Structure formats: C-alpha cells, structure tokens
Amino acid sequence: MASEKIAYHDMPDPELVVQCQLGERQALEVLVKRYQKTVFAMLYQLAPDWHDIADLAQEVFIRVYRHIASLRNPKTFRAWLNQITINLFYDELRKRPRKISTISLDRTGDDDEQIREFPDLSQGPDEIVLNQELAVFIRQAMNELPEQFRTVIVLRELQGLSYEEIAESLGCELGTVKSRIARARARLQVMLKNYVEKLPKNQNKVVGNFKSALSI
C-alpha cells in the first residue's frame, strides 16, 4: 500500500511512532499536529513571559524527529514527549535570568490549546475585582515555588496528568512525585490561606470555589 493512502490520522500514537521509526514522514507530521498545541500550552504554563514559546515548541519536535528512532516502547510516547518538553524548559531556564513569572490564572485559554485554568470565580463587579486580586496572589505564590515544584503542579493541575504519568515524564519515583506535589500544595496553602480567610464573608461562594481549587 502506498504511504499516501495510509490513514495516519486514524492511527493511535504507538502505531504512528512505529511508522516514524520506519521513516514515514507523514506519520511524524500527524504526531506534530496532534501535540503541537499541548506542547505550546505546557511551555506557556511553565514560563508565560518568554516571548519565544513558539520557537521552543518547534525545537521540541526537532528533538522528537532526531531521537524518535531510539524510543524503545512506542506506548510511552506521550510521557517521552513530556520529558523532552520539560528538559528543554530546564535547558532554557539555565540560560536565562532566574526570576520568571509563571502560570497565568487570570487569562482565559482557548479550549483548543488544552490549557486548564482555575475556575472562573467572577459573578459581579465585586467578584471580578476579587478574582483579579486572587490571580495576582496566585501568580506571586506560584512564582516563589522551586522549579521542580512548579513543574509537577503544571503537569498535575493544568495538564491533568496522573501521578504515574508525571513520574514517567520526569523519570523519577512515584513517591517523589507525590511528595513534590504535596509539598507544592502545602506551600501554596501557607502563602494563600491567610489571604483567603480575610475575604469578606459575603464572598462565601467565591471563597469556597477558590479553596476547592487549591485543596485548602
């Protein structure tokens, strides 16, 4: 069967990986189209103030192209892709100023970009102002997290990965992932709990949703 007649778009990831390893360029193009928005979203969530996210996302897939032949288990492609993305982030982080802002929680993401945000808590004018203040506090708190804590929070809370998937993506033990997530949440809770408790009592719904979002 000629390669152009193969229904690559209908193939699951493992089959596409195998085709890529056989030199089928169209299979790689499908993988890129399937995951380019996810990769862009992850990089943006990790460092939204970097202005070259699109270039970095392209570099991720250049690395995929160069090394996909070495991927022994095609079923682990998603974790492998996450690992490449995270490694690139850390490579760039070492080259750049240490102070970076992080996850923007007051910006509404396009559904197609698969960016998960904290719930929209605004109802009226007062709630809108409150939500803006909360967003500032959250960004500040997230910015103070060590990179390894910020990474697991992005993967867990924004990318929606399971603990097992995060462990595979980061190449570390499951217990390490759980510990980092717990410690990251604990730090966020300490930094934000006092602020939440000082909110007006008439904002109970907002407070309740916010606490639920951070598991406070």
Features:
mainly alpha; elongated; 9 helices; 216 residues
What do these coordinates show?
With 216 residues, this protein is mainly alpha-helical. It is built from nine helices and no strands. The protein has helices spanning 13-21, 25-46, 53-67, 77-95, 125-143, 147-158, 163-170, 174-197, 204-214. Helix 5 (125-143) crosses helix 8 and helix 6 (147-158) packs across helix 8 (174-197). It is elongated. Residues 100-123 have low confidence and may be disordered.
List unreliable stretches of 5+ residues. Answer: 100-123
Which structural class fits the helix and strand makeup?
mainly alpha
- The end-to-end span amounts to 57 Å
Task: Choose one word for the global shape.
Answer: elongated
Helix content: 55-70%
Please give the count of helices. Answer: 9
| SSE ordering | HHHHHHHHH
Largest sheet: none
What is the residue-mean pLDDT, rounded to a whole number?
77
Total DSSP E strands = 0
User: What Rg is obtained from the alpha carbons, in whole angstroms?
Assistant: 20 Å
Strand content: under 5%
